[in-house]
Amino acid sequence: MKKFEIFKTLNNLKLNHSFRISNFKFQICVLTVLAGLAFFANNKQVFGQTTQSFTISPPTLKFSLDPGEKAEKSIKITNNTDSAAVFYANIQNFVVTDKNGTPELLPYDAKVDNKYAASSWAAILPDAISIPARATMVTTLYLQIPGDARPGGRYISVAFMPKSTGLTEGTGASVNAVAAVLVYLTVNGPTEESGRITSFTAPGFSQYGPINFKAEVKNTGDIHINPKISIKIKNIFGREVYSTALPSHTNVFPGTFRAYETTWPKKWLLGRYRADLVGFFGQESSLPLSAMVTFWVIPYKIILAAAAAVFLAIILAGRIKNKPSKEIEEEK
User: Fold this and answer.
1) Where do the TM regions start and end (predicted)?
2) Span 52-187: which CATH code?
3) Residue 331: its pLDDT value, please?
4) For the chain, how long is the longest CA-to-CA vector?
5) Domain 195-300 belongs to what topology?
6) Contact 280, 227 (CB under 8 A)
7) What is the average pLDDT across 205-223?
8) For the whole model, what pTM was predicted?
């Protein structure tokens, strides 16, 4: 009787333990489902927020002014949404620190020790603009060059942002989630335009194409340059087999590098090739750029396979040719 009660007690404990485990699993499942629903609900809320879309025109401005001269230019802002929006504008210096020419806006109130900065020479009025839905408004950039300004390049931006900058979609020169008009300002006078090719490379040996080329240009002057560069490829006999132009709309800012890449798309190649990079830059397009690289393309695996096939064919042909002779000798 006591044994029966002990077993009954143990069974009850097991049932209770199983029930607790099942109950615990059920609670975990419920919490998981609720967490998933909360996650999707939050994501929907974030991505469902109203975005503000606007367009700035033009995306870039270029000026060539004398010391002491004044200038102004209109900038259009279009509100592409179905509700009114307020936009703020600031004059900000910008710098380029990478090799892709990507402008980086500096804080408008930052003190900049940069001989290419000119934010103190510019103003934007009005700098706060309320634009109705689907409407376009105009603001004006004002420039005044100091009388003692040093000749050369200066680089600023007119940065626009909506009153709420949570999720902004703007067209223009987009920099750090702010749409900006990049301003290229040249102070007339004696300037130094100089630059050079710092590298021009291609794989020294390849089995087959395409062949990738990389080049870098450094601006060693005091004004931005816009190189026009092309690559011409000749085979071992000196005959030109391919030529291509690199992007020509790229500016190289003073003291910076600019990287270029291009590809010779042809796959089946054989032999030694020479690639010549030739170009020019400057206001008169008279300053040259040049570099050269050689490379080999030999599909050695295909050549070895073909040679092996020919070798085997010769051996088989020799055996077939000698077989009748042996049979005749045996008959004799």
Assistant:
1) 293-317
2) 2.60.40.10
3) 54
4) 115
5) Immunoglobulin-like (2.60.40)
6) yes
7) 96
8) 0.71
